[in-house]
Structure formats: structure tokens, C-alpha cells
Amino acid sequence: MATTTTIITTTTTTLSQAQVTLQGMTLRQKAAQVLLLSFSGTTLTESISGVLQDGPPGGLILLGANVTSAAQLRSLTAALQKTAAATGSPVGLIIAVDQEGGTVQRIDDGAPDVPSARTLGTDSSPQEAAHLASDTAVALLNMGVNMNLAPVADVVSDSGSFLYRRTFGSDPALVSAFVSAVTEGYEDYGLISVVKHFPGHGSATGNTHSGAVVSDADKAAFEATHLPPFRAAIAAGAEGVMMSHIIANAYDSEAPASSSTAVVGGLLRGELGYQGLILTDDLRMAAASGSASSQSAGEAQAAVAALTAGCDFLILTETYANEKEVLDAIVQAVETGGLSQARLDDAVLRVLGLKFRHQIVAPQE
Question: pLDDT tier at 12 (50, 70, 90 boundaries)?
């Protein structure tokens, strides 16, 4: 069974490996290590090769347009890892995907066809969902994918919600049971699972892709309905928690959850006691970046704010120019004191610790 305690590293050895690696990194290399970036193409293009050679990011996220077949994906992920290793980096790339099930499956060939979470929650059992998750883990790892941005732990009752089919149900006990089973199914086979969207997108109406979304649920509602599935996932060994961009008024009436110290540090790290990797949802979403004068400036501001609040790994599905601007902003924030070196180091250590624990390292000659 999966471990019930999530920590930065599981042994003194992996901790020291991460610390030694951190000590040898430049500021820019550290800033790159907290980024999970998208890219274009189904092969190792000149563009993505240049990104990797400039200094590998912490990871890459696969979208549907990056995948055509199992064989193509195996070739692509191997080429990406080889190119990253050629820079001299001692660690490899986290390669992530949204493989939830239903309509949110980026990989068709070579992976199980998983029904939507709502279908599983209605017509199946946690045990059957765990079996599908295990099969998915084996398939993804075989194709070079080491992180799945799933399961969805939101509790949703509104059938009009964009998340409705992606959630297991409206009963927090049922959702907790399925989330726990799926998390164990991934983690028991070595696939890094990322439960989402903390502290519970189901507490609010609206879609953070297109604009600000505010949750007026009180703390009692979060405790009774929206937090239990996240507690269950953490107990089941989830190594990643993804922050939503909703504004949860019960905890912070101003900042989105992804950049709220009260939500990230106070609630997730403090009250829930979670010490694993914390990811943002895509910083391209309007709820995260829409308040700035330009899209790229908004993403850069959101990135620094998320790191400052306590997030460790930042998802950005944008052009390389935008991605570079975010990287530059993180470096500048540390140089000017807007982001502490200690906070960035803490985030990088979590990324490195996860990589060494899963042997996501450069191949030995």
C-alpha cells in the first residue's frame, strides 16, 4: 500500500543528493527548476531543444497536440530527457500529463480508456477505479511520463459546472473514497500523482480559465465538504497538490488560492500538515494573470506571487517568449528582494527531492 506520510524526501541519501545539487546551481538554474512548461510539436524541434539547452526547466507538460501514438511519445520523451541530460544537469525532467479520464485524456494509444470520474463515481467502485489507475500508471511510465495531474478531488453538485463530469460526485465521503483509491493506484506503481484543485473548486461557480471566481463558502463548509477528499489523497500518498485560482473568501478575500499565503501556508501546509510538492494550476488562466496590463506581465506577477505564498512548481502553457519572461521575473525578484532566496531554495529542494526519489536523473555513462 502507499505510504500515509508525504515528506520531501524518504531517505537521508535523497535529501543530501538534493542539497548537493542545489548548492551547485546558479540562480537562473534554480528559477528554471520550478517551472513546468508546455511546448509545441510531436518531435524534438529546434525550439524545444533550445529551451532545454538554455537550462532545462523542472519539467514539461504534454498537451494533446504533443501526442500521436505510443511509439511517438516514447521517442519524444526519450529525446527530451537525452537533450536535458546533455546540458550536464544531474536531474532529468518531470514529464506530466492530464490523464484524468473521460474527455480529459491526452494519450489515447497505449493507455487504458478510462471513463469520466463522474461515470466511475456513479457506476463503478473505488476498487475498480484503483485498478484502472494502476494500469494507467504502468502505461504512462512505459511511455516516459512520470507525473499525472490527477485525480480531481473537487466535490461538485452543479451539473452545469465545467468540472461536473471530471468529478466523482457530490458526496464528500464518496469522492474521498475514489480519490484515495486512485491516488494509491498511481503511487503504488511509481507514478507521481497530483490531486487538484485545492482548496476545492467545487465550492464556487464559474471557470477560472476565463475570469475571477469567488467562493463564498465558509470554513465549516470547507471542513465538511471540500477538504475531506484532499485529506484522503494526502493520507493515500499523493506527492503533489495543485492549487486552484479561486478566491476562497473564508481564508483570503483578496488573493487567488494559488498566491495566498493563508491558503497555501496556513491551510495546506499548516492545518492539513502537507509537506509535499505544491503546484499551481496554469498561470495562463485569466483568474491568475488577468489583472495585469498584459498577459505575459500577469503571468510573471502571478509566478512570483505563487512562489512567495509557498508554491513550489508553476505550470505555464504559453509561448517561449512568455515562459522566458516568467523565468526572468523570478530571477529579478530574488535579486531585488521581492522573493527570498530561502523560499526559492525550499521550492527547488522539493522538486529535486521528488526527482531523486523517483530516479528522474541524468543517465550514468
Answer: low
Q: Which residue has the cell 477560472?
A: 208
How far is CA 345 from its chain centroid? 18
Is residue 226 among the annotated active site residues? no
Contact assessment for residue 64 and residue 106, using Cβ atoms and an 8 Å cutoff: yes
CA distance 197 to 241: 8
In the chain, the N- to C-terminal Cα span, in Å, equals 34
Residue 218, in any domain of the structure:
yes
Assess whether pLDDT exceeds 70 at residue 88.
yes
Considering Cα of 20, then 25, then 31, then 36, what sign does the dihedral take? negative
**CA 141, CA 338: separation in Å to the nearest integer?**
38
Catalytic residue among 98, 252, 281, 282: 281
1 pLDDT band, cuts 50/70/90, is: very low
332 within a domain of the structure (yes/no): no
Distance CA 276, CA 269 (A): 9
* Residue 222 in grid coordinates: 470547507
- β-sheet bridge partners, residue 247: 214
- pLDDT confidence band for 14 (50 / 70 / 90): low
Number of domains in the chain: 1
Q: Nearest-5° angle of CA 145, CA 150, CA 152?
A: 170
Q: Is residue 115 part of a domain?
A: yes
Distance CA 311, CA 344 (A): 10
Determine how β-strand 192-198 pairs with β-strand 240-243: parallel
The residue range of the domain holding 164 is 12-21+32-270+313-320+348-357
| Residue 186's CATH number | 3.20.20.300
Global pTM reads 0.93
What share of the chain in percent tops pLDDT 70?
A: 93
Is 178 a domain residue? Answer: yes
Q: Is 209 an active-site residue?
A: yes
Residue pair 197/175 in contact by the 8 Å Cβ criterion: no
